[in-house]
Design goal:
The structure holds two protein chains of two kinds.
Chain A: H1 6-22, H2 29-41, H3 47-58, H4 65-75, H5 80-85, H6 109-122, H7 125-139, H8 150-161, H9 163-178, H10 183-216, H11 218-225, H12 240-268, H13 275-282, E1 303-309, H14 315-329, E2 335-340, E3 344-346, H15 357-367, H16 379-390, E4 398-403, H17 415-424, E5 427-432, H18 446-450, E6 455-458, H19 462-473
Parallel strand pairs in A: 1-2, 1-4, 4-5, 5-6
Antiparallel strand pairs in A: 2-3
Helix pairs in contact in A: 1-4, 2-3, 4-11, 6-7, 6-9, 7-10, 8-10, 9-10, 10-11, 12-14, 12-19, 16-17
Chain B: H1 4-7, H2 11-20, H3 27-39, E1 43-46, H4 53-63, E2 68-72, H5 79-82, E3 84-86, H6 88-97, H7 103-110, E4 116-118, H8 120-126, E5 132-136, H9 143-155, E6 157-160, E7 164-167, E8 173-178, H10 186-190, E9 193-196, H11 202-212, H12 218-232, H13 242-254, H14 262-272, H15 276-287
Parallel strand pairs in B: 1-8, 1-9, 2-5, 5-8
Antiparallel strand pairs in B: 3-4, 6-7
Helix pairs in contact in B: 2-3, 11-12, 11-13, 13-14, 14-15
The chains are: A alpha/beta, B alpha/beta.
């Protein structure tokens, strides 16, 4: 056990927990104490071990791990000298103790590229860190105190290093080493190269972050590199990577939704007498059936109608709602989904049980007839189309969920149609991806529709979708009775 | 076999020892298992199917020469299957056998331990020697049922109304696994150390293949690992697990295939992938790139 002094590491971990909380990762008091206890039994000089230890005690969900990684890199950064010399890691060393811009200045740029290339060829992480250290020294133009983000230095270094050229050279060298394989070999090789170049990028990013931490201190850097958690990413502005992470998190959520909708019905009714269970139970009381047992009513598969606006303004959100639709269709046998822009079409079959999501998405794009005129949302016409073609299938057992921003391009909203629907359906919920404060501004007619909905929710993030699911399960809250 | 004391001296020693029982842990897995042992806390292992979550519990049991008590979770699991149940038939026979006895005496008698059927959780608690308790696929039980586990996990005890509280004779080492099909309760997660196991990188996968399929040529193992990684990056319903890549390696060995090209891969893809749509997609992507 190499605990230098108890206080520095304790306060460092406290600061680290604060940063995790600031990033949105829920860390309880008990977990913090667990982490402190764990630090007493491990060797905190082993940085990787320290990282796994803190991760195991503080983070309890996979989707929070990337936020954890980022914060860890800032709070427990190796100082540049430690990184280059492979010196023992001391987590409590104050940032700023390294001598920063030393070393490697004698090499020419060509020399530097060659040593990077060699490190990449051999996958030698030690050599790579060293070469990256001198690359950042020479190429980033790092100026202490200058208020620019880490990305600025990152792109500057990568551009001057000419990372594309390095990738090409690496490809040539590795192809030579591998000899002539078939198509398959080529594919595998290019993937391997991509992975190694990514390692290089990662190393440069880490190196720059180390210098920033040294320059500005942990808290300041942590604030700038903080990214929203998957559940807090704004769906309207999500990047592709964000969307992929979100898609991974949707499936568990829909399972919860299915369980909630089914359970509510289970709580509402009692089934018939279960003779077998009653007799069995009576054995505990000497054969006297004191306590009758009832069959739990079979949970009804709830009937759900899902209507999604998939117009251009909703592109990112539409992808998300369709993903939600797809995940729901695996949970509900009686789920019917519809897409609309200025008219409506049924898309249930595209996301059936034996389909995959990207295939379904392609079919929605090519086969669904959702545009009648100009491809701008027209909720009124879409509602009319729905009413005419599918309206009579909506019964008091049906839950209707509509997703869209209710921006009607100044066309007639025809909200009386929604009123009719509401009178027949069990419940109507509306999920709107716009912030509540934007509703009823410009061409948004949310208010006109809201009157007829059991509830309307702002769903801009996964967390808000989850809140909607939670609220559905609450015994009160928009339930109209059977 | 090395004694439990030396294997848990340090994470590195534990990693090395696990290797001895054919479980290739990465440093992270070893570190968390080490911590769980030292702190006496359960491990919650999460990750995609077939990456060796259950295997970890089995390997630790083998390594420490402990009995493995397994509770397989499923929807509808209840107390009487997880904790304990009174043996009604035996109680009934007992009542009928002595009709003449005093009721009080009889009551004391039929609610004694000899009429108790122990289920995995109680069994793990009552074991004389410490056991490894594996609670498999915890995400399959309903969220309400999770509560059954909390008493066992944090206090290592079970309360039976008729008998009182039964405390652990020895602390079991608890491993819970989850495929993350639903969110687990905060209360449960707080009590556990969390370990996310993902697919191994190609180098580790190659090593796993060589350990599990000893006759496999090294070059083929390397190729398999690389192809499996490539397939996992595709957008599939169910990416191939480690156990499936082991199956694939065995198949290739049985077919005496020593070198993989596009054709042999697409011909044997059904071992690796379990959905027709996945097989079609993967072969299409492997053919034109």
């Amino acid at each position: 056990m190499t605990l230098p002094t108890a206080t520095p590491i304790t306060s460092l971990v406290t600061g680290f927990v604060g940063e995790l909380r600031a990033a949105g990762v829920p860390v309880s008091m008990v977990e913090t104490i667990d982490a402190m206890r764990a630090l007493e039994v491990i060797d905190i000089g082993d940085r990787a071990g320290l990282k796994s230890t803190l991760a195991a005690t503080l983070v309890k969900a996979e989707r929070h791990l990337s936020a954890f990684d980022t914060a860890f890199e800032v709070y427990f950064a190796l100082s540049p000298t430690q990184a280059a010399d492979g010196e023992a890691f001391d987590p409590t060393a104050t940032p700023g103790s390294g001598d920063g811009g030393a070393g490697g200045s004698g090499d020419g740029l060509e020399e530097l590229r060659r040593s990077l290339l060699r490190a990449l060829m051999d996958s030698d992480m030690g050599a790579m860190t060293q070469a990256v250290g001198s690359a950042v020294d020479r190429l980033s133009g790092f100026e202490p105190g200058r208020p620019v983000g880490g990305t600025y230095y990152l792109y500057r270094t990568l551009r001057r290093l000419d990372i594309d050229a390095i990738q090409e050279m690496l490809a040539e060298l590795m192809a030579e080493a591998a000899g002539d394989g078939g198509d398959l070999e080529d594919r595998l090789l290019s993937e391997e190269i991509a992975a190694r170049i990514e390692q290089l990028r990662e190393a440069v990013r880490d190196e720059i972050r180390r210098r920033l931490v040294e320059d500005r201190g942990r808290e300041a850097v942590a604030r700038t590199v903080r990214r929203p958690l998957t559940e807090d990413v704004d769906l309207m502005h999500a990047t592709r990577t964000d969307l992929e992470a979100i898609e991974g998190a949707i499936a568990p959520l829909t399972r919860k939704l299915a369980a909630r909708l089914a359970r509510r019905r289970r709580l509402l009714r009692r089934g018939r007498l279960d003779f077998r269970k009653t007799v069995r139970r009576s054995l505990a009381t000497g054969g006297v059936p004191l306590e009758p047992k009832f069959k739990a009513p079979r949970p009804h598969r709830p009937e759900v109608f899902l209507l999604c606006d998939i117009s251009g303004s909703m592109a990112t959100f539409a992808r998300f709602t369709l993903q939600f639709t797809y995940a729901m269709s695996t949970q509900f046998s009686k789920l019917r989904s519809f897409a609309f822009i200025d008219t409506v079409d049924e898309i249930t079959d595209f996301f059936g049980p034996s389909t995959d999501f990207s295939g379904g998405l392609a079919r929605v794009a090519s086969e669904a007839e959702v545009v009648l005129h100009d491809g701008h949302s027209d909720y009124g016409t879409a509602l009319l189309g729905f009413e005419q073609r599918y309206g009579k299938e909506v019964t008091p057992r049906s839950t209707v969920i509509i997703t869209g921003d209710a921006r009607n391009n100044y066309r007639p909203p025809r909200d009386e149609l929604l009123a009719d629907l509401a009178a027949r359906a069990k419940a109507i919920y509306w999920l709107n991806p716009e912030p509540r404060s934007y509703w009823d501004t410009g061409d948004s007619v949310m208010g006109r529709y809201q009157r007829w909905c059991d509830s309307v929710h702002e769903v801009r993030t996964l967390r808000q979708l989850e809140a909607f699911v939670e609220q559905l399960s609450a015994p009160t809250g928009g339930y109209k009775g059977r | 076999m090395t004694s439990a004391a030396t294997t848990t001296e340090s994470p590195a020693a534990l990693m090395h020892a696990l290797r001895g029982v054919d479980y290739l842990a990465d440093p992270r897995i070893a570190q968390v298992a080490f911590l769980a042992h030292r702190l006496g806390k359960p491990i919650l292992v999460e990750g995609p199917a077939g990456v060796g979550k259950t295997e970890l519990a089995k390997a630790l049991a083998t390594l420490w020469e402990r009995r493995l008590v397994r509770l397989q979770c499923y929807e509808g699991l209840d107390e009487s299957r997880a904790l304990y149940e009174w043996n009604y038939k035996k109680q009934l026979l007992r009542i009928q056998a002595d009709r003449d006895h005093e009721w009080n005496q009889l009551e004391d008698d039929i609610f004694s331990e000899s009429f108790l059927l122990t289920r995995p959780l109680l069994e793990a608690i009552r074991a004389e020697e410490p056991v490894v308790l594996l609670i498999d696929e915890i995400d399959r039980v309903e969220i309400e049922t999770e509560a059954l586990l909390l008493e066992v996990l944090s206090d290592f005890q079970v309360s039976i109304p008729e008998l009182g509280t039964i405390s652990a004779a020895s602390h079991p080492f608890v491993v819970l696994t989850s495929n993350n099909t639903r969110e687990l309760s905060e209360a449960l997660k707080r009590r556990c150390l969390f370990l996310h196991i993902d697919y191994p990188d190609p180098a580790r996968e190659q090593e796993i293949l060589l350990t599990r399929v000893p006759d496999l040529p090294e070059k083929l193992a390397k190729q398999i690992a690389a192809i499996v990684r490539s397939i996992r990056q595709m957008d599939l319903k169910k990416p191939p697990s480690v156990s499936e890549s082991i199956d694939w390696a065995r198949t290739l060995l049985a077919l005496a295939i020593e070198h993989l090209d596009t054709e042999t891969v697409t011909d044997t893809l059904h071992v690796l992938l379990k959905y027709q749509s996945d097989i079609e997609r993967a072969s299409a992507e492997l053919v034109h790139q």
